[in-house]
Amino acid sequence: MKVPAGAPHGSIPDSVSIPPAQAPSSQAEVAAFLAALAGAAPVETHISLVFLGPDTVWKLKKAVRLSFLDFSSLAHRRRFCLRELELNGPAAPGLYRDVVPVVRGPDGGLGFGGERDADRALDWVLRMARVPEGDFLDVIAERGGLSPELLDATADSVAAYHQALPPAEIVRASDGVRWTVAGNASAARAAGLDPDAVAAWEAGIAARLEPIAGWLDARGQAGFVRRAHGDLHLGNLCLWQGRPVPFDALEFDETLATIDLGYDLAFLLMDIEHRVGRPAANRVLNRYVARTGDVALVRGLPVFLSLRAMVRAHVEATRGRGVPAQGYLAAALAYLRPAAPLIVGIGGLQGTGKSTLARALAPGLGPAPGALIPRSDEVRKRLHGVPPEAKLPAAAYNAAASEAVFAELIAEARIAAEAGHAVVADAMFLDPALRAALRDAAQAAGVPFLGLWLCAPLGVLEARVSARTGDASDATIAVLRAAAGAAGEVKDWHAIPALDAGATLAAAREAVTKLAAAC
After folding, report:
1. Nearest CA-CA partner of 224 in 236, 215, 234
2. Which of 211, 237, 256, 378 is the most buried (most CB within 10 A)?
3. Regarding the domain delimited by 137-334, which CATH topology (the fold level of the hierarchy) does it fall under?
4. What is the DSSP string of 223-284?
């Protein structure tokens, strides 16, 4: 356990600025006891003292009352320790251990009590397991360790976390977003950010928010607003028992953490884009959507991402870090600028590199963090309730199953495009009717369409399919040969040789550029 880099204030909510740190004198004796246990002084945040022992972490909430929380009473500190344990325990079993009272013993010294010692508590402590410093995802990102596999696992973890949450009873979710916008604008001004830039941001995000207000309300009524994490950046994810898990959920304000799941995800996407780059953020977005099916969330991303960037902008400004603050402020404004949506279809036999090309193209298309990639192999796995890499039986590939997969893929492409997002649809598209259906979806959404057809000699494709591991495709050599035998000549999509990845990407980008120029 550590204090997450990038969030030394702890889980500070979106709508407030951060006061100077202060250690209440009333807790000095308890702090000294915990420091002796840990063998070192605590890591201090604005709301907690965190004592790091060799295998145990003790977290003491400061006896402070701020504009956004009240830890001033012993009862409040106990309640919020228990709430933190309740919120974080399910996502990371064993990482959060228990909440215990610090009591005075018969000899006058301090120690930990049990449940029956509540009335003797001098203070309350949350006990956690110690996580190695290098196992936090912000640290891993700094050393360039966020591999594609780890990004996928992170998205899987967040998707599972979100899907386990019960829907909240929300009438007008858009009101909460408006309140958050107003709070961040106020905090940005208080932090000393350029008032003209803040005013431009406030006007820009209002212009983006009002057209989707009804959609946000419908999302809330459909169950997409939940009591979520609330502070889901890389510093609040760590490797635990071999997999990435979220921790340190915002515990002290239910309203601040009861938000659209897309807004919860957006903090992670914004943080990854800033620290690692857009391709990594695009991968996480697409993996999350592949696992949850929540394609519609892309409609809110310009507002959600901009809000999250503004949070970081005024936090960094309050900390006196002008350069990072200006970078986040620029990002908050950039997320609101329109980017033209389009639909690109990528077809071809197994092994032509459709998914590789889709991943390479997507980050550069449309609004941040790049195009959505509905992939037939991933859609099929989700419809059958299994992870993308799980193998399916032959029955999952019968005509009826395949028809359902392609109906879902086309629907996802249209939903995303109508929401103003770019799409790269990844499937074989051997059937001319399916190619026409994707083109019709673009037409219905009112966006440009480009079909790319990848081709390579059968021997090359067989070698590639044989070498595949850990992929969503279940195709075998026999399946490839059968598809090749059934495939006819494709003349309605732009043909691209798929022998060299760099040349294929260059040709695809050239085709997209020509499409944009023609529009």
Report:
1. 215
2. 237
3. Aminoglycoside 3'-phosphotransferase; Chain: A, domain 2 (3.90.1200)
4. T-EEE--S--SGGGEEEETTEEEE-----S-HHHHEEEHHHHHHHHHHHHHHHT-HHHHHHH
Does this model's pTM top 0.70? My answer is yes
From 332, 368, 14, select the one nearest 203 (Cα to Cα).
332
Contact present, 344 and 450 (Cβ < 8 Å): yes
- Nearest alpha-carbon partner for 75 in 63, 87, 89: 63
What CA–CA distance (Å, rounded) separates 71 from 76? 5
pLDDT band at 486 (very low <50, low <70, confident <90, very high): confident
Can you tell me whether residue 439 is helix, strand or coil? helix
Classified by CATH at the fold level, domain 343-518 comes out as Rossmann fold (3.40.50)
Give dist(CA 133, CA 54) in Å, integer: 12
Q: Classify 6 in phi/psi space as left (phi over 0), alpha (psi -120 to 50) or beta.
A: left
Question: In sequence order, what are the residues at sequence separation of 6 or more whose Cβ sits closer than 8 angstroms to the Cβ of residue 182?
Answer: 15
Q: In the chain, where does the domain assigned CATH 3.40.50.300 lie?
A: 343-518
Q: Percent of the chain having pLDDT more than 70? A: 96
Helices (H), 64-172: 74-88, 137-142, 148-163
Handedness of CA 356, 361, 362, 363 (dihedral sign): positive
Q: Whose CA is closest to 347, among 457, 471, 434, 405?
A: 434
Report the amino acid identity of residue 429. F
